[in-house]
Design goal:
By secondary structure, the protein is an alpha/beta fold. The protein folds into 2 domains: about 130 residues, Rossmann fold, CATH 3.40.50.10090; about 130 residues, Rossmann fold (3-Layer(aba) Sandwich). It contains 11 helices and 11 strands. The strands form 2 sheets. It has a 6-stranded mixed sheet, sandwiched between helices. Helix 1 packs parallel to helix 11, helix 5 packs parallel to helix 6 and helix 8 packs parallel to helix 10. The longest helix is centred in the last third of the chain and has 20 residues. The two termini are about 30 Å apart.
C-alpha cells in the first residue's frame, strides 16, 4: 500500500504510554502511516509494601475469584506470585477463577498462565466491569489487585452487588523519573494531530508536565483522544475537549477509532 493510501498518512500522533507498553500500538500506527511521537507520562513500579498482597497470595485458596481490571494488575500480581512460589517448599495455593476487564487484560492474563473464566469483553471502565461481573460475584469472595491510585469504586460497587471483596495494592502508578525534553519541546513547538491518553493518570501527569495554560493551548490545535470513558472523564474534568473515545482498549480498536475520527473530520472539512 502506498504511503498516500494509508489511513493515517501524515498524521502526527503522540502516545503517552510507557515504552514497554507502547511497541504494539506504535507499530500499528506506523503501519497505518502515522508519525508517532513517544512521550511517556506514566510509569509503574512495585508497591512500597508487599505485605497485603503477600498475605492474600498466601491464602489464595480462600477466594472464589481474582478480578483483574488492568493489564498491569495481572503482570505485577503474577510476577510476585511466581517469586513467592519459588521460595515455597510446599505446592503453591490453588488459583481461583479469574475475571478480566476487557479483551486486552484477558489476553495478558492468558499469557501469564491464568486464562480468565469470565471476560467482560465490552467493558471499558470499572463500572461497566462490575455491571457485567456482578451476577457471578454475588456471595463470592473476590480478590481485587489494583494500582495504588485505583481508589475504591470497583471494590465498593462489587460489595454493593453482594461480593465479599479484598482489595490489595499490586503496583504503584507514578510520574516517570525523567522526561524526554526533546519530545516535549517538539510537541510544544509543532503540536500534534492527536495526543492519545491511556489512563487518567497519564493525562494528569501530562497536564502537570506541560502546565495548565500550555495544556489548554495545545488542546486548541491538537485533538485529545482517550482509551475509554474514565480517561475521557478526567480530560473533560480538566476543561479540555475529548475528540474521541476508543470503543475498546485493544490496539485494533484504538487504531480503527483514530482512523474513523480523522476520516470524519476530513469529511466535515470538505462539506460546504
Amino acid at each position: 500500500m502506498a504511503a498516500t493510501e494509508k489511513p493515517l498518512a501524515g498524521k502526527r500522533i503522540v502516545l503517552t504510554r510507557p515504552p514497554e507498553q507502547a511497541p504494539t500500538l506504535f507499530r500499528a500506527l506506523n503501519d497505518a502511516g502515522a508519525t508517532v511521537i513517544l512521550f511517556p507520562c506514566i510509569e509503574f513500579a512495585a508497591p512500597e509494601d508487599w505485605t497485603p498482597l503477600d498475605f492474600a497470595l498466601s491464602r489464595l485458596n480462600e477466594f472464589h475469584w481474582i478480578a483483574f481490571t488492568s493489564q498491569n494488575a495481572v503482570r505485577f500480581f503474577r510476577e510476585r506470585q511466581r517469586e513467592l512460589d519459588s521460595m515455597r517448599s510446599a505446592p503453591p495455593p490453588r488459583l481461583p477463577k479469574v475475571a478480566a476487564l476487557g479483551a486486552a487484560t484477558a489476553e495478558v492474563a492468558a499469557k501469564e498462565g491464568c486464562a480468565p473464566d469470565f471476560v467482560a469483553s465490552a467493558a471499558r471502565s470499572g463500572q461497566e466491569f462490575v455491571a457485567a461481573f456482578a451476577p457471578l460475584a454475588r456471595g463470592q469472595k473476590v480478590l481485587l489487585p489494583q494500582s495504588d491510585r485505583a481508589g475504591d469504586r470497583v471494590s465498593a460497587a462489587l460489595g454493593e452487588a453482594g461480593a465479599i471483596v479484598t482489595s490489595v495494592v499490586a503496583y504503584r502508578t507514578g510520574v516517570p523519573q525523567s522526561i524526554d525534553n526533546e519530545a516535549l519541546a517538539r510537541i510544544q513547538r509543532d503540536g500534534a494531530d492527536l495526543i492519545f491518553f491511556s489512563s487518567p493518570s497519564a493525562f494528569r501527569n501530562f497536564a502537570e508536565t506541560v502546565g495548565k495554560i500550555a495544556m489548554m493551548q495545545l488542546a486548541k490545535h491538537s485533538a485529545l483522544g482517550a482509551i475509554g470513558p474514565t480517561t475521557a472523564g478526567a480530560i473533560r474534568d480538566a476543561g479540555a475537549p475529548v475528540a474521541f473515545e476508543s470503543p475498546q482498549p485493544g490496539v485494533t480498536a484504538i487504531v480503527k477509532a483514530m482512523e474513523e475520527y480523522f476520516s470524519e473530520r476530513g469529511r466535515a472539512k470538505a462539506r460546504p
